[in-house]
Design goal:
By secondary structure, the chain is an alpha/beta fold. 42% of the residues lie in helices and 20% in strands. The chain has a single domain (25-42, 67-248), classed as Alpha-Beta Barrel (TIM Barrel). Helix 1 (2-16) crosses helix 2. The radius of gyration is 18 Å and the shape is globular.
């Protein structure tokens, strides 16, 4: 029942345009002088009382009641609209999460391609994040989806990598640019097995010319360890907390 209630709230929020975008920077570990030129877009729902609601509260209902495509479409349209109205930082790459249902939907792919072709925003500024679970569930379809968007210049990151504990072999079939190492390994870095897993993911990344991003990095100790393991980028509260995503013409570079 609770999820049904959420489903109604999601529909109403879509109708009233009561979602908003937050973002969380991704910083380079190897060139610490660089200012972050990657950021991940995050979704929030604004209640009718103006309260900001985390996606953990409503995404399970959105997945169960097939609302994810509508939400993904809202995010893409909103983002392209915001960015096309401002001359944004030319270096910045924006990571956008896509749900498994959107990845397996031909109409969504068509919507996305058309939105990008009709937008002044350079598709190379977009990096779509897909979860390991979604990728494995329909490898052939997901690989075709990725290739279709990579032809336009988009990039891809494989999110929560290692969480599925599946064999790394399937990676060869996916044209990914970034691997995001699952945060559970990062938070257990004191454990030799977690270190060995992170180390092996980095080695695979280097062999494939794919860059690695560690998630949920919370302090300088973890950053130092990850740097020595050869991780390329870090994201988490130790770098920056999520904040409202605003681009105004005043921020032109």
């Amino acid at each position: 029942r609770d999820q049904q209630q959420w489903c109604l709230r999601i529909d109403k929020a879509l109708e009233d345009n009561r979602f908003c975008l937050y973002h969380q920077p991704i910083a380079s570990l190897q060139n610490t002088q660089d200012k972050p030129h990657h950021t991940e877009l995050l979704l929030r729902l604004v209640s009718e009382e103006g309260q900001i609601i985390s996606p953990m509260a409503f995404i399970p209902a959105a997945e169960r009641y097939h609302r994810m495509q509508k939400i993904d479409q809202w995010v893409i349209s909103q983002f392209l609209n915001k960015l096309s109205q401002a001359e944004a930082d030319s270096q910045m790459i924006y990571n956008i999460n896509l749900s498994g249902t959107s990845l397996n939907d031909e109409q969504f792919l068509q919507f996305l391609r058309e939105a990008l072709l009709h937008s002044p925003v350079d598709p190379a500024k977009l990096c779509f994040e897909i979860t390991e679970t979604a990728a494995i569930s329909n490898l052939t379809q997901v690989a075709a989806f990725m290739k279709s968007l990579k032809q336009l210049g988009c990039q891809f990151a494989l999110d929560d990598f290692g969480s599925g504990m599946s064999s790394f072999g399937y990676l060869r079939q996916l044209p990914v640019d970034y691997i995001k190492i699952d945060g559970s390994f990062i938070q257990q870095l004191h454990d030799p097995i977690s270190q060995a897993i992170v180390d092996s993911i980095c080695k695979i990344g280097r062999a494939m010319s794919t860059r690695t991003i560690a998630e949920r990095v919370e302090d300088s100790t973890a950053m130092a360890q990850l740097r020595s393991l050869g991780v390329d980028y870090v994201q988490g509260y130790g770098i920056a907390k999520p904040s409202p995503f605003c681009i105004s013409p005043m921020q032109k570079s």
